[in-house]
Amino acid sequence: MDIKTIEKINKVTRKSMSNYTKFSLALLFVAFVFIYSYAFHGNIENNTFLIIGAVFGAYMAMNIGANDVANNVGPAVGSKALTMMWAIVIAAICEAGGAFIAGGEVVKTIKNGIIDPALITNPEIFIWAMTAALLSAAIWLNFATAVGAPVSTTHSIVGGVMGAGIAAAGFSIVNWGTMGKIVSSWIISPVLGGVIAAGFLFFIKRNIMFKEDMVSAAKTFVPYLIALMSWAFSTYLILKGLKQLIHLNFLQASLIGIVIAVIVFIFAKSIILKNSAKLSNSRASVNSLFNIPLVFAAALLSFAHGANDVANAIGPLAAINDAIMNAGISSKVGIPFWVMAVGAIGIAVGLALYGPKLIQTVGSEITELDQVRAFSIAMAAAFTVIVASQLGLPVSSTHIAVGGVFGVGFLREYLDSSESAYISRARKRFKKDKKELDAYEKELHTLEAIDKKTKANYQKIVALHRLIDEKIESAREAKKNFKEAKSIKYVKRDAIKKIVAAWIITVPAAACLSAAVFFMIKGIMV
After folding, report:
1. What residue spans define the domains of the chain?
2. Which of 56, 207, 261, 455 could connect to 227 by a Cys-Cys bridge, CB 3.0–4.6 Å?
3. In whole angstroms, what is the distance from residue 374 CA to residue 5 CA?
4. Which own/partner pairs from 409-413 qualify as long-range (CB within 8 Å, at least 24 positions apart)?
5. How many CB atoms lie within 10 A of CB 195?
6. What is the pTM of this model?
7. Helix (H) or strand (E) holding 106
8. 445-471 mean pLDDT
9. CA–CA separation, 200 vs 77, rounded Å?
10. Percent of the chain having pLDDT more than 90?
11. Which one, of 128, 452, 152, lies nearest residue 316 by Cα?
């Protein structure tokens, strides 16, 4: 998908649903949450902040849908394995399903233990802090979505909780060791995601795409790649997406994943062999083999995201609800169904209304993707989480996915600049054309100096002029095509700068904003 195609999509989107309509629908959802929370909690003492928290929670959930879900479906859309409409439908269903089915009943209200709630003894101050954290994280996500920067929801929440905690009880409340791990994830996540995605892409290129008989190579390797993907996603889903329903260690999850992978391998091998006669020996034909795996990858990533991240994102709302209901502060609380529904439905609404912008950013505005590259990114997402969880390394799913996009883009740059046979042939052809052009011009100059009037020389002079014009035009066309090819393949540097800058400032920006909101609430209430 190129820039012109993206602009066409934007025009169609603006025609089909204006910004005013999107805002109205979003406001309608927030109004519904307000009415529900007021109707069912109107008789509870000190219910004002619960109602406010529910509204902020709805706003936060929509921003998660608009920003964070793009990482799960963006590569599939960018590679054209999925249309934008079906990506939104699949992601919305799977995100909500993951939240409702496997979201769990208990969540740490203080994300990753970044602050010690025991240092806040007054429940009202704790409620103010969680309200500030929720609102600031949502505002930051809204801003990041507006500028087209995919950022980590978890880091936004972490920054919000940290800033409000510092404002409420001072710097001693922060667990700086945990914050150090979070900072390290800014480097670990994208680097691991990029390296693993580039590794898979290089393997596929070397063993399939660079072979003379690509169909034969695909029949050999693609079933194994799909089986490996099945193992990775099965293990990933059991460890991360279904951890609230079933408690299995890595070895147990891996064994179940191997059984699933063997079954998938048998089916994939049979289908590919059956359809091999219809395949042409081309990149497009081989790419088409990865369409269905990419659809499943987008669905499974969305389900795992809904199960694993929704509860954490609405943790502050659950904390507010618990503090008001029990007039106390807990490090872990139960999540009522209505709170989970706010998160799950809000994500679906935000994704449907505002998700396409970030889906386009991840899928096509950083680098050009096809099915093989998108498959490599999906594999990187699953493998990086598995590897990091076993090594105890903190990672961000957003940073992994975007790092994977960077990885495949930079690998293509490296291959194009150092190993491409096309570039080598183009250089040789240019040198040959230049040598012939010099010879023609020299001969032309000699003939014109000797005799311009004889018929034989005149015809030869005309022929030489024609040859020279053709060579010049050929050189110009080759130069133009070469530049266009390189510009399409390169990772866009402006996108890198914008996204990396957003990653770095997410925690401090959300923290500063949260502290400001906390002091504003405190000033109003005291």
Report:
1. 3-419+491-525, 421-485
2. 261
3. 18
4. 409/366, 409/367, 409/489, 409/490, 409/491, 410/194, 410/198, 410/491, 411/198, 411/201, 411/202, 412/201, 412/367, 412/373, 412/489, 413/489, 413/490, 413/491
5. 16
6. 0.77
7. strand 106-108
8. 62
9. 19
10. 26
11. 128
d(CA 341, CA 348): 11
- Answer whether 112's CB lies under 8 Å from 327's CB: no
Does residue 364 contact residue 492 with C-beta atoms inside 8 Å? no
Query: In one letter, which amino acid is 184?
Result: S
Dihedral class, residue 226 (left if φ above 0, else alpha if ψ from -120 to 50, else beta): alpha
**471 alpha carbon, distance to own chain's centre:** 46
The answer to whether 67 touches 144, Cβ cutoff 8 Å, is yes
Q: Which of the 8 DSSP states describes residue 118?
A: G
Choose among 354, 324, 383, 318: nearest CA to 99.
318
- Residue 17 predicted with pLDDT over 70: no
Q: Cα(212)–Cα(334) distance, rounded to whole angstroms?
A: 59
Of residues 401, 404, 522, 518, the one with CA closest to residue 159: 518
Residue 21 CA: distances (Å) to CA of 17, 18, 26, 28: 6, 5, 9, 10
Q: Give residue-wise pLDDT tens across range 91-138.
A: 989 888 888 876 655 455 555 578 887 788 888 898 899 899 999 999
